[in-house]
Amino acid sequence: MGREDTKLIQYLSIWLVIIALLSHAVGFIFLARFLPPTPPSRDASYVASFYHENTTGIMVTCVLVTFVGPLIIPFFGVISVQLKRIQRNNSSLAYTQLMSGAIGASMFALSAMLWAAAAFRPDRTAQEILLLSDMGWIFFMMPGPFAITQLGAIGLGILMDRSHDPIYPRWLGYQNLGTALLLVPTACVAMFRTGPFAWNGLIAFWVPAALFHIWFISMLVFTFKAIRKPHAAVLEPES
């Protein structure tokens, strides 16, 4: 396979992840109405009523997420390709990034399956629906450390690039590390039912969600640019 074919596959991966992100947004906001998230402080009857009223939208969203969710993984593969160009003989950060991203995407799909199970049988008891809904949100939020590991690997990889024309701008490395740090509260949502650290709270959900989407857009733009850079650009070490 020639270099142009390889670049074409990488560009295709970027377009696939854009489709995946748009599909997730449409599903979560307009179909399932998962934004804002169902408050963890709500009782079983409220949660059951939410699933009864939105059964079709939730099921369509969960199926959509299961299908398009894996489209994110090829993009993580493209990022790993760029990290390998930076590290050259040491690809540990590239593999760490790819594995962490793939596991995180898998947990995301699993949360959708749990929400689908909650909506699948409307005749379940309210407590059973509440249990499945809670599990879905916990599986959605608590794997944050996988994203932290992923972004940490990307950030370190970018900052290790000492070439005259780096693959990624250095500030993007700091953005990755800063975003990783601010994702830490997502791992603590099981400890809170109300307040900013609950899974619908400002610190545990809204801030990480906003920063994660900004990160995604930044990585999309600069990975697209990185694909266009020739290999020679990273083979000239600084004096």
Automatic annotation (TrEMBL):
Coiled coil: none annotated. Signal peptide: none annotated. The keyword RNA-binding does not apply. Keywords: Membrane, Transmembrane, Transmembrane helix. The chain crosses the membrane at residues 12-35, 55-81, 93-117, 137-159, 171-192, 198-222. It comes from the Bacteria. This is DUF4386 domain-containing protein. It comes from Mycobacterium kansasii.
